[in-house]
Amino acid sequence: MGKVFIMSYIFIDESGDLGTKKSSSKYFVMAGIKVEDSQKLDRVIRKIKRDDKKNIITSNEIKGSNLPHDIKIKILKKLDSVNYQVFIIIFEKINRYKVNDGYDNIKLYDLLACELAKQIDISSSSKIFIDKSKNKKEEIVNFNKAFLENLNNFKKFPIKLEHANSMSYKGLQIADLISWAIFQSVEHNNNEFIDLIKNKKIKRVFEEKKNL
């Protein structure tokens, strides 16, 4: 009997911003969802669109910020049919100036992504998709090097890292909804959505003794 090849898929997105204006968010959240079958995430979205044609936005891309309330609930509940893990970091921006390079949003974003990477356990060859926020080649190269070095990949499984448009991957759209749900909890004290997310590993970063 031949060896079974296992591949993991990880989709990463964020909510909130790293701005410093009064209108900016208080928190920045980054979340990744890990699955062994990315098509199951695709099927969750397709089924919701098929069953709720009258209510769901007709765009090819779904986002936590623009979905009807009941659709968000349905998607998060339907994830129960998927074997997944969720990795999350929460950053309270009042702490940004305690962080090296906290004044530089590009470097701060990379540091926060590396904190997320530290939470992700790699147990097989993996493809990682990050919602695209960088366009300069040098920034992407620097990010990829730091992110890959910080993954829990002790057995050195092969990793492919792609900065992708969420329009192209339903998994990134699910990651957007998950990061939005966590953001609602910390920014607006609304736990309705976060309570529906199972198998989650959450860490507050760059602050003391506030792990969830």
From TrEMBL:
Pfam families: DUF3800 (PF12686). InterPro entries: DUF3800. It comes from the Archaea. This is DUF3800 domain-containing protein. The lineage of its organism: Archaea, Methanobacteriati, Methanobacteriota, Methanomada group, Methanobacteria.
